[in-house]
Design a protein that fits this description.
Layout lengths: L5 E9 L21 E7 L5 E8 L5 E6 L3 E9 L10 E6 L7 E4 L9 E3 L10 E4 L3 E6 L14 E7 L6 E4 L2 E2 L2 E6 L4 E5 L4
Parallel strand pairs: 1-7, 1-9
Antiparallel strand pairs: 1-4, 2-3, 2-5, 5-6, 7-8, 10-14, 11-12, 11-13, 11-15
Length: about 200
């Protein structure tokens, strides 16, 4: 007999950026690479025991090769810096009929195994699991170098450049002493011009 073989996949993506991007296989969401999941398998006593950790790939795709049938639980354990952890626990069952198939998580009513076959591995039918960004606040204050007095009317431009594409991701033009909401875990550039 040939050894059992199946696979499980899902996508991790940025919940705040569902733009179409042809560099990701599902063409609809910004994939998050490097998110860590823990896979556990149900034991005879009913408890789950961790059997390994798995990271999402460059386009946010998590691919896990499974060599044993049984009931599994998949939980995100380490999100990317600047993102909230998604606490969803996905419990699913792999059976004889899943041999050499690629499956994804399913919440369809009446689906006891909580899986569905993906016709094309890494395709649009793959389950999507988003992460929300953690936002922080930065306050910009311009002062006279000699007197320490605040200078009002100074114009700022705050930019964030994508390290891969070199495209400017966001602009935050502002005037005066401003508080701006930005994502944590990113690198920004602040440029100030003369006061009016």
């Amino acid at each position: 007999n040939l050894p059992f073989k199946a696979a499980f996949e899902l996508y991790k993506y940025d919940a705040e950026h569902p733009e179409i991007d042809s560099s990701h296989k599902n063409y609809e969401k910004i994939g998050l690479a490097g998110v860590t999941f823990t896979l556990s398998k149900k034991q005879a006593n009913g408890n789950f025991q961790a059997v390994g950790t798995h990271d999402t790939g460059e386009n946010g795709l998590l691919h896990i090769d499974l060599t044993e049938k049984g009931t599994y639980k998949l939980v995100e354990t380490t999100p990317l810096t600047g993102y909230q952890k998604n606490g969803k626990e996905m419990e699913f069952t792999i059976v004889d009929g899943d041999y050499q198939k690629t499956l994804t998580y399913s919440e369809a009513e009446g689906n006891a195994y909580h899986t569905t076959v993906i016709p094309n591995a890494g395709g649009a039918a793959t389950y999507d699991l988003p992460n929300n960004r953690i936002h922080g606040t930065v306050t910009l204050t311009k002062q006279d170098v000699n007197s320490g007095v605040n200078l009002n009317g100074v114009k700022y431009t705050l930019t964030r450049t994508d390290p891969v594409s070199s495209n400017v991701d966001k602009w935050f033009p502002s005037t005066g002493n401003s508080s701006l909401t930005v994502e944590t875990g990113k690198t920004y550039t602040v440029v100030a011009s003369a006061a009016d």
